[in-house]
Design brief:
By secondary structure, the chain is of the alpha/beta class. It has 4 helices and 12 strands.
């Protein structure tokens, strides 16, 4: 987390809409949480969610954005500083929120190279199976990833990781020594790991 508090701004239209949403929420609201949902060829995708009282996330930066409390994802504070959030009514079922973020996809050059590899080579290949892989972080020559779409909960996910993703990464970016999958495969649409009633796991 950065030493200084990040700056987050809402347009007047966004503040009006979000206050309306908060006022109509059935439970007491502590604020909103701003996080990075995903990184991809188009840059950063953002997610803004309601935080109920008593569920405030630890490690987040807490800022006052025009009278609205915002919990800024601690792991991505540097990438969320300066975000401006707009709102435009786009009809039923559409959030209408738009995010203007001046930050790059990655500040770390190694992570940026790895992201490009994901965007150009890895994700286009696994997209045929309805899946994708997100790069979460790079620390000490270790890449942390998360699988989504058809890859989450797929029984072949580990094969895809070991025989596909890791092989390509080691060939193209040998500086990366380890790849760790952080995906919760048990919550996928077809989980291959299902917790038992005792809390242990059993493979399907």
């Amino acid at each position: 987390m950065s030493a200084e508090s990040p700056r987050v701004e809402f347009t007047e239209a966004a503040k009006t809409k979000l206050r309306e949403v908060i006022a109509n929420y059935p439970e007491p609201v502590a604020g909103l949480r701003l996080k990075i949902a995903r990184r991809g060829p188009e840059g950063l995708d953002h997610l803004l969610t309601i935080v109920e009282e008593g569920t405030e996330p630890e490690g987040d930066a807490v800022v006052d954005a025009g009278g609205i409390t915002v919990f800024v994802e601690g792991a991505n504070v540097s990438y969320l500083n300066g975000v401006s959030i707009h709102y435009e009514d786009k009809g039923p079922g559409v959030s209408g929120l738009e995010f203007d973020n001046p930050n790059p996809t990655w500040l770390d050059p190694l992570a940026a190279r790895l992201q490009e590899l994901f965007d150009v080579h890895i994700n286009p290949q696994i997209a045929a199976h309805g899946g994708y892989v997100s790069l979460l972080d790079v620390q000490d020559r270790t890449a942390y990833i998360e699988m989504g779409g058809g890859c989450q909960g797929c029984g072949m996910a580990n094969v895809t990781l070991k025989q596909g993703i890791e092989v390509v990464i080691r060939e193209e970016i040998p500086e990366i020594e380890q790849v760790i999958d952080t995906t919760d495969h048990a919550s996928g649409s077809n989980p291959y790991y299902t917790p038992s009633k005792a809390g242990a796991g059993a493979a399907k």
